Amino acid sequence: METDRDAIHRRRKSCLAAMNRGDIDAVMEHYVEDAVLLFSGFPVLRGPEEISAHWEQVDRPDRDARLDTLDIRVVGDLAYEVALYEVTAVGDDGEPQVSAGKNVVVWRREDDGEWRLAVDICAADV
Amino acid sequence: METDRDAIHRRRKSCLAAMNRGDIDAVMEHYVEDAVLLFSGFPVLRGPEEISAHWEQVDRPDRDARLDTLDIRVVGDLAYEVALYEVTAVGDDGEPQVSAGKNVVVWRREDDGEWRLAVDICAADV
Hints:
alpha+beta, 3 helices, homodimer, Nuclear Transport Factor 2, Chain: A, globular, 6-stranded mixed beta sheet
């Protein structure tokens, strides 16, 4: 039997894999309809149009995002995850550039039983 | 009867007021023992020593922090709040400097019935 934490890990891995292969439709399947994206250097982005536009904008073939989950806590159909992120992409000068920081996701389990990201906030280290 | 959302609003206001008057002991009473602070430009800060040291470090008489809460959701003894923040402080040149961004707090209701911040993450706008 899959625990809630296992299910959240599975969903996170599948969302990250979709991001890294540039499959934005698959990324968006992981967000609730009224999700909110709160990233350093960007305005508040709400809902599928603004969120998918963000992921389209930052997508590039060499972009690789990694996550290191520190905590997951589940209460009923709500959970939160604290993680560190690291994104590598080749810059305009051809050299790989790394950006890293802290990430918190609020997860909601929806009526179909699947966990989805309701809040996704990234605070850059620099 | 005070609703959970009202209680969270009350706690947030009281935490912010303590911050703005530089009463770090009173600020810390609002965090759970294993709280984590995740701010743009800072490393992961965990627990009362690291968190109080941060608030001591940034405290100054003219510092004024304001919050605009966008969402609060409560599930049992867990809740999350999405807010915008704006901090004004006089810079070294004597001019007021404003920093603004997005904030998510994960709240936990503890055994004494009081809501406390378990995760506090701030993603700067720039």
